[in-house]
Amino acid sequence: MKGFLGIDVGSVSTNIVFLDEGGMVVEDIYLRTQGQPIATVQAGLKKLGARLPSGTIVRGVGTTGSGRHLAGLIVGADAVKNEITAHAVAASSLAPGVQTILEIGGQDSKIIILRNGVVNDFAMNTVCAAGTGSFLDQQAARLNIPIEKFGEYALLARAPVRIAGRCAVFAESDMIHKQQMGCSLPDILAGLCEALVRNYLNNLGKGKEILAPVVFQGGVAANVGMVRAFEKALDLSVQVPPYFNVMGAVGAAILAREAVARKGTSLFKGFGVADTSFRAGSFECSGCANLCEVVEIAENNNILARWGDRCGKWSSTAGREEKIS
CB neighbours (10 Å) of residue 169? Predict the structure, then answer.
């Protein structure tokens, strides 16, 4: 078997997929990042390597997410792309003709507007995490219900209550107040979903023309209550594509395929990187008044790369073999 790897390293989760040469998802892996992106990527590669048939050839690797540069350095990525590009490419592949992408992940959310297959506009949350996966996880735990059942409970609502959803703190306070008033759990959960959708559309969707087909992806798309709330607010059908929770990784794999097609060879280091010793650290450069915090990554006790300096004094050494003192 031959195919391409896509790795999406986020603050909450790390997703890895393997696409065959026809673009079909053969394997997908979801792991909690837990503040250890290097170890998580290595664990994911080890797990994927065990699942794939013996002799599988990886023709290319792409990385995306907030940890894309770090992951790309570790695995030898052929394409290192931002989340907007990766999600747009994946959605266009799995839902041809898509014009609006709603994406909500563990700690961030974004909206992407496409026209004729090209990103026309986008926006990302920058201030509040209300409505993201971590917030919904927190509320489910507080209410002592499985997060997998959150959406199902919301669909049982008869009269969703109005929740203040512009801030995570206010939303939780308002939910507690509604509970104390005697409102039913389904009505509160449905009200929360509707509040979070209002917040999303008022912030990220403000001034944007949201046209069908609309695709909802990211981990929160598993919540059918949120899907229903988006459909109600937009008065449009909202599609949840297959592999909605690993779309960033799917897009990264597709972009790797395109990159390798252009240059003909891959930089992938192989599944052996799962057992390679990597070390990440940082130091403050005192060479000038900027006092830059320089991050360095070492592989098998050799400096692999450095970044974070403004002048290039340290990052210019990237790629050189240099022993750690």
Answer: 10
